[in-house]
Design brief:
alpha/beta; Spore Coat Polysaccharide Biosynthesis Protein SpsA, Chain A; 2 domains; four-stranded mixed beta sheet; 12 helices
Length: 324
């Protein structure tokens, strides 16, 4: 049977979650249309052994892939190379999909021919049990749009994104390896080649937040903040590569860069007090002034924190760090 959707699952040491993740995807109404690549990125637990159980039951749909550790980007790169589905969607091994919406989504993908599909996501907070659905395009009707005519009012995270597979493969979309925070590269590296967008208003991705040790937790940030900066400058490079007349695409990426500017500047304030992080923050700000002043100006309008840092020559760092 033709594969409509390739689901790439990043499965590094997620044995405690992987059954829930796979169970959320398995629906007899559409399992045959799925290619589910569970990529064990050099993990040390029994994730792959659990996946083998599912492989035996669904040998034409579920495929365990073991590889040497190369980081999140290498998982995506491996999956893009192996993908056979008409569309490609990424899923983290400790998250899951909305089972009740999945088959309807697959039916939609059979019919549409857009380069990029956007859907809402549901966020579940593990610490307090709260949930919220994020629909970043609720101001627009369901349907297909020319990409350059879309009003991008919000960022578009990986969790909401689904791409035409052949577009990723033909343009050799490659994500930075051995680096955290590269999910934003998956969303933005294809940007120069996107011509059309389809908006659907039912959530597919369920994103688990509030887990200590996640890359977006304070512990994770302190450990990987330099990798976040690496990805940031990769995004700046993509932004500079967009032509001036590609207004919607520049707006799309500028919103992400503005958010990441504020995040990166705050991340320095999560570090131990001292001259090192302060100097890094000043260096980051100076480089941004020189290489992407448009981004810095927009970030100052977006974030009072960024504005205060810039206006004080980053001297407010010493106070801000104590408040975080």
């Amino acid at each position: 049977m033709e594969k409509i959707l390739t689901i790439s699952i990043a499965a590094y040491n997620v044995s405690g979650y992987i059954r829930n993740t796979l169970d959320s995807i398995i629906s007899e109404g559409c399992i045959d249309a799925l290619q589910i690549l569970v990529v064990d990125d050099g993990g040390k637990d029994d994730t792959l052994q659990i996946v083998k159980e599912y492989e035996e039951k669904y040998p034409n749909s579920i495929f365990g892939v073991h590889k040497e550790n190369g980081g999140y980007g290498s998982v995506i790169n491996t999956s893009i190379r192996l993908a056979k589905g008409k569309y490609f969607k990424q899923l983290d091994g400790d998250d899951w999909f909305e089972t009740e919406n999945l088959c309807e989504f697959v039916d939609l993908l059979r019919k549409v021919d857009a380069d990029y599909i956007l859907t809402p996501m549901r966020m579940v907070n593990e610490s307090d049990g709260s949930e919220v659905v994020k629909d970043y395009f609720e101001h627009m009707s369901e349907g297909k749009y020319p990409f350059d005519e879309v009003d991008f009012r919000h960022i578009c995270p990986m969790h909401c994104s689904c791409f035409r597979t052949v577009l990723l493969q033909e343009h050799n979309i490659t994500i930075t390896e051995h680096c955290f925070y590269t999910d934003v590269e998956l969303v933005n590296r294809p940007l120069p080649y996107l011509r059309s967008l389809y908006i659907w208003h039912k959530p597919i991705y369920v994103y688990r937040v509030g887990l200590e040790g996640q890359s977006v937790s304070k512990t994770g940030i302190r450990k990987h903040y330099k990798e976040h900066e690496t990805v940031f400058w990769n995004l700046v490079e993509i932004y500079h590569g967009l032509e001036e007349q590609q207004t919607a695409k520049r707006q799309f990426l500028l919103r992400r860069l503005v958010k990441e500017t504020a995040a990166q500047m705050k991340y320095y304030c999560y570090l131990d007090r001292g001259k090192g992080p302060y100097a890094e923050l000043k260096g980051f700000t100076q480089r941004l002034k020189q290489e992407a002043p448009e981004v810095l100006i927009a970030a100052m309008d977006y974030s009072r924190f960024v504005k205060v840092m810039v206006k004080t020559g980053c001297r407010a760092y010493h106070i801000a760090g104590l408040l975080m």
